[in-house]
Design goal:
The protein is of the alpha/beta class. The protein has one domain: Vaccinia Virus protein VP39 (Rossmann fold), CATH 3.40.50.150. About 30% of the residues lie in helices and about 25% in strands. The strands form 2 sheets. Strands 5-4-3-6-7-8-9 form a 7-stranded mixed beta sheet. Strands 1-2 form a two-stranded antiparallel ribbon. Helix 2 runs antiparallel to helix 3 and helix 2 crosses helix 4. The protein is globular and about 50 Å long. It starts with a helix and ends in a 5-residue tail after the last helix.
C-alpha cells in the first residue's frame, strides 16, 4: 500500500519536507542513486517518524542513528542503494529480514503492496508496526529468525537483509524466485561487503557493491526468544 498524501501531511510539516528533499538531492542523487521510484519513495517517507524522539533533529543527516536494543536505522544513502539494487517492480513480492525501526519497510511499501518483514526482537517489531500503521502503510510483519526466511510466503522477487550474517543464509537463496534479487551485507564486525545475488537462467550471479558496516544478524537463539 502506497502512503497516502493526507496521512503523510498530518505527520509532516514544511521543515521536515524540506529537510527530506535536501537529503534526497544532496545525499542520494549527488551520489548516483537514479531510480525515480526509489527517489520518490525516499522523498515521501518521513524518516523522522522512525527514529527515537531524542534523535529526530538528526533524522535527515547523512548517517545511521541508534534505535532501541542496540540496533540502528540505516544511513539514508544505504537504504536507497539497497532498494535500487533490489530493482523492485510494482507487484513484486519482497521479503525484508530485519524490520528494525520500520523505515526500510516503509520505503518498500511505497514500491509494492506485497512486503513481508521479519524481526527477531519483539519490541522492535511492535514499535515498527505502530509507526507503519500511523502512516497508513500495510506490511506483513512477523517476529522470527530471519536466517530461515519466510518459506510459507516464498518465493520472493526481492529479498533485502538489514543486518549482517557471517555468510549468506542458504534459506534466502532457496526462497528467491527466478530472476529474484537478494541484497545483503555479509561478514563480521570490521569486514563486511554489501552484495547482490541474482537468480538467472544461467545460475546465481553475485556482485560485490562496496564495504559497509551493519549490526550483526541476531539469531533467534542468540536473542533468547525461542524463535526457530
Amino acid at each position: 500500500m502506497e502512503p497516502t498524501p493526507d496521512v503523510l501531511d498530518a505527520l509532516d510539516d514544511d521543515v521536515t519536507r524540506a529537510a527530506r528533499a535536501a537529503m534526497v538531492e544532496d545525499q542520494l542523487v549527488a551520489r548516483g542513486v537514479a531510480d525515480p521510484r526509489v527517489l520518490d519513495a525516499m522523498r515521501a517517507i518521513p524518516r523522522h517518524r522512525f527514529v527515537p524522539p531524542g534523535y529526530r533533529a538528526q533524522a535527515y543527516t547523512d548517517g545511521p542513528l541508534p534505535i532501541a536494543h542496540d540496533q540502528t536505522i540505516s544511513q539514508p544513502y544505504v537504504v536507497a542503494v539497497m532498494t535500487e539494487l533490489a530493482a523492485i517492480e510494482p507487484g513484486d513480492r519482497v521479503l525484508e529480514v530485519g524490520t528494525g525501526s520500520g523505515y526500510q519497510t516503509a520505503v518498500l511499501c511505497a514500491l509494492t503492496p506485497h512486503v513481508y518483514s521479519l524481526e527477531v526482537v519483539p519490541a522492535l517489531a511492535a514499535a515498527a508496526a505502530e509507526a507503519l500503521a500511523d502512516l497508513g502503510l500495510a506490511a506483513h510483519l512477523r517476529v522470527g529468525d530471519g536466517w530461515a526466511g519466510w518459506p510459507e510466503r516464498a518465493p520472493f522477487d526481492a529479498i533485502l537483509v538489514t543486518a549482517a550474517p557471517p555468510v549468506v543464509p542458504p534459506a534466502l537463496i532457496e526462497q528467491l524466485a527466478p530472476g529474484g534479487r537478494l541484497v545483503l551485507p555479509v561478514g563480521h564486525a570490521f569486514h563486511q561487503e554489501l552484495i547482490r545475488i541474482e537468480r538467472t537462467p544461467r545460475g546465481l550471479v553475485e556482485r560485490s557493491i562496496f564495504p559497509v558496516r551493519f549490526v550483526p544478524m541476531i539469531r533467534g537463539a542468540d536473542h533468547g526468544d525461542g524463535a526457530p
